[in-house]
Amino acid sequence: MNFTKLLRTPHSEVWGITENEEMIGRIDIHYDTDESVDVSVLIKQKLTQEQELELCEKINENLGENAELSDENFTMVVSQVDSVNVYGKEDD
Predict the structure, then answer these.
(1) What DSSP state is assigned to residue 16?
(2) CA dist 10 to 6, 29, 30, 33, Å?
């Protein structure tokens, strides 16, 4: 799995998750002014709990800015979905 930055604002980032050049998921990272970090992960793959935790660790290692999974101000939610579709924005 690879991560590609899609959007950056002062308080958030959106990353695409790709595998074999196919979009299989999305990561939304939100940075609050109290230094808490909330991450939502949508993934179009059936993962075991162990695989989910490995994905969380990979996201944390590659995308986490001064936040750790064990930190009480850091939350990551993983949702496994049937499809990931993007509407309204054309590829460059």
Answers:
(1) E
(2) 14, 11, 9, 10
Task: Give the strand pairing for 74-80 and 2-9.
Answer: unpaired
**pLDDT mean values, one per 10 residues, the chain (92 residues):** 92 92 91 86 92 90 67 85 78 56
The dihedral region occupied by 7, where left means phi > 0, alpha psi between -120 and 50, and beta the remainder, is beta
Query: Length of the chain, please?
Result: 92
Give the residue among 64, 46, 66, 44 at the shortest CA–CA distance from 56.
64
For 1, the token pair is 């799995």
What's the pLDDT score for residue 68? 58
How far is the C-alpha of 7 from the C-alpha of 56, rounded, in Å? 20
**CB-CB contact of 59 with 78 (8 Å):** no
Coil/strand/helix, residue 86: coil
Say what the pLDDT of residue 90 is. 65
